[in-house]
Amino acid sequence: MALSHSSVDAEAAARLVAFGMRPKQLPARDVVYGDLVRRYGEDNAFKALTHAVAAGLGLMVLEVNQQAGAVLAATDESVFEIKMDSYARQAKIRERRETEKVLHGLIHLATAALGYPRPDDLANDTYIGRVSVEQVDAMVREAARMLDERAAQAEANNDPLADAPELEQAWRAYTRRPAAAATKDGRLAADTTRGMVSRALRFLADQGFLVPVSDEQGGTYRTTPRYQIQVRELAADAAFDDLLALDVVAVAAAGGTLRAAASDTL
Question: How far apart are CA 208 and CA 203, in angstroms?
C-alpha cells in the first residue's frame, strides 16, 4: 500500500529527529541527513511537523543547522531525559550520593563557562572554545576558594548565607578531595577531582559536545556547534550566572585560547 504524502512527511520528520539522537552523526557526513536539515530550513510545514514529532517523544528541538545537525533536549519526565543516576552509570561515578551529584554539576557548569566565557562567544557560530581537565579543576577550586571567603565574610558579619546558591553549598566537598593521585597502574585515581573532571569531559565527548584534541593538561578538548547550542540554553540557568559572576575565568589575548585564572597558582 502506498503511503500518503502526510505519512511520508511524518516519516521524514521522525528520521530527522532520529538523526538528532545520534550525537556524533553530522549532516556533512550523511547525504540523507543533510537533505533533511536543508528541508527543515526551507519548508515551514516540515519544520512544524518535526517539532510536533519531537514533542510527542518528549523532546524539544533547540536548533537544526548544517554545522550541528538536529540538536534536541529532553523535556521534564521524558523517557530520553538523562537522569543523574543514568549519568552516574555512564560516567562511572562510584558514589551516587547527593554531594557527588552536585560536584559533577559544578564540573559541567565550569566546563561550559570555560568553553564560552563571554556572551559574544555564544553568539558567534564560528567560535570554538578549548577546555582541559586541569583548567576545569583549577576553575572549580578557585571558585571554591572565593566562595569560602564569601562565607567567612558573611559569618563575620553575622549574616549567614541562608539563600546561598548551590555553588556555595558544594565547595567544601570539592576542596576536601585531592586534585590528583595515581593508582598502582599509573592511572588517575577515580575519587580525585581531576579524575572526576576527566570522566565528565569524556562523557561530553561521547555526547558529541566536545572533541578530544590532545593529552595535554590532563586531556584537552575543543567545543562543537552542538555544545554551543546546549550552553546557550544553560546560560539561562542562575547557577551559570553565579559561577561567571565570581570572575574566575580569563581569556588570553592571543587566539582566543581559554584558561582558568587560577591555573598559574597550581
Answer: 9
**What is the DSSP code (8-state) at residue 21?**
T
Cell match 577515580: residue? 190
Q: Secondary structure of 189-243 in the HEC alphabet?
A: CCCCHHHHHHHHHHHHHHCCCEEEEECHHHCEEEECHHHHHHHHHHCCCHHHHHH
If phi > 0 it is left, if psi is from -120 to 50 it is alpha, else beta; for residue 71 that is beta
Torsion angle, CA of 188/192/195/196, rounded to 10 degrees?
170
Cβ atoms within 10 Å, residue 131 = 29
Three-class SS of 33-102 = HHHHHHHHHHCHHHHHHHHHHHHHCCEEEEEEECCCEEEEEECCCCCCCCCHHHHHHHCCCCCCCHHHHH
* Eight-class DSSP state of 162: T
| Residue 19 confidence (pLDDT) above 70 | yes
d(CA 259, CA 265): 12
pLDDT grade, residue 27 (50/70/90)? very high
Within 10 Å of residue 91's Cβ, how many Cβ atoms? 19
- Judge if pTM exceeds 0.85: no
